[in-house]
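[Meeting: bench + compute handoff]

Bench side (C.D.) handed over the final construct sequence. Compute side (W.E.) agreed to return the predicted structure before the next meeting so the bench team could plan truncations. Sequence as handed over:
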Amino acid sequence: MSFCKSKRRSITVAMFSAFAASVALTTLAALPEARADDGLGRGGKAVAKWLSGDFHQHTLYTDGSTAFDFAMRQSDTFGLDWWANSEHGGERNRNGEGAFWDALIPPPAILGAFELSGGHREMWRWQSLRDFAFADVVRNRGLYPDKRIFSGLEWNVPGHEHCSTAVVARDASAISAFEYQFDNSDDDFLPDVTNDRAMAPYGTLTKQNGKLDFSQGPTAVVTTSKSFPERHLDAVKGCAWMQDTYDRGLIDNAWIVFAHVERDGAWTADAGGGYNVEHFRDFNNAAPDVCFGFEGAPGHQVNGDRGFGNPVTCDAAGVCTSDDFGGSYGGAGIYTAKVGGLWDALLGEGRRWFNFASSDYHRHYTAGGDDFYPGEYQRTWVKAIDADRDGTHSLSEIADGLRSGNAWFVQGDLIDFLEFEAQSRNQKAEMGGELRAVKPINNLKLTIRFKSPAANNCKPDGSLITSCAAPLVDHIDLIAGEIGGKIDPASAEYANPTNASAQVIASFTAKDWETDRDGYSVVVHHLKNVGSSMYFRLRGTNLACGTPFETGEPARLPSADHCNPLADALVTRNLGVDGAQEAWNDLWFYSNPIFVYVKR
């Protein structure tokens, strides 16, 4: 098919060092008394609540263009309930306010190998995460006591692209240990640092991202590169390490969610690259409670490629070719946007592999960047359950919600509420959940309940954004695929990124939904005689089928008349900052799946 054509828990963990302990404890003691909940949960009724958030944003600590506190403030301004400071591993020469480490008075003791950048001493991210960024996270938790702020890292994955990670714990020792061992850009190999970090509960930390050569002396470490297959195995080890750390109760919670997964092209053993389906299978096999999804809609939604750095070429007939899997389609990568593609292949195994979105904020488009602020355009909604009944929704409860798959993402606040439910007799299942039957289901009831806000964050400015329309859903597609068993890694099918059974089985427009007494739109759809195991997911848009350069003409299929998003590269005005207008014109949301198992 030419897609262009048709478009846990509480813990007690020792601090990583006496210095880290003094920083974290001093900061906690300084927090205002009004901040009764530090986000980790305390001892009501278990209440479920939909909360919106952002996985992935940058500050002056790494390659962001604005201060740490500014990014936190923007996340709050645009109404997010939770967000993660998740920026690159490796090393940097400045702190979250943009001050050079060696220019501070007094300058901090910088540990590890000596490296300079721009004439200034660099600090390894394992140290800045542990001793500085975490203190900033805790301080901002005090500034925004009703919000939940995660301590995270954008992992430079060995042999691959990037990945958003976060750890819920009372300090940053685990995320720091993870970065030190497994980040592809952290080449701090000095043995004194290794010894400094050989501490309980993690034991001796072993570098996994290079081969050491001390032939030039004990402080002149030369790293020799590993092959890309070896690097991939190191990435799998990183996932397994985080899973083990979680299983042992050394941290409360964690996630590893892969970022802009199509951007770096197809992975090969000779050149590395992005991610193929077998890599996600490897990661999920090694760490099913930690590695449970990816960002299906990348950040950087204002740039000319709607989130990707690689160009897509389309001819006059609308046929597109690209080395990066065809770029983006309605702002979503092809792994997500293509029905029967890679995401459907994973779901077809019954894998709990879920889909999210983020801002990847570095610099706002009005300041020369290609990003929206966190929460301004894209957000991930998750249903968090107050399991400990303390009257709040903690960091760990939010992470549990994401792991459950009861989550969805949206662009431009096309909708600000979505519930998707399957029911058979007295059994019900929500997104990420499962429904099981011992015989074919005579009547499977699927209910979609959603609502759009009166307005979104689009604001005409007379130049970059010339018009804004109220968010209004044109149609919603119901997508289904069959569920088989997990594929054996030894099978040739392990590398197959397709699911031929996946298809759009129904498409709904305004004539198909009713408005309930609370103002929510409701669609009820019945499937008769469901005799095989299947999953169901949704996508929706503000665009009608046949919108030039945006959506294809309706596909007249036995299952349903529907249309696919077209390649964003077809939109000639989607260039530079003008991409802000295009992003507001072209809005989508995607649900996570419901799994229905029928015993045969």
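W.E. noted at the follow-up: DSSP finds twelve helices and 30 strands in the chain. C.D. will use this when planning the next construct.
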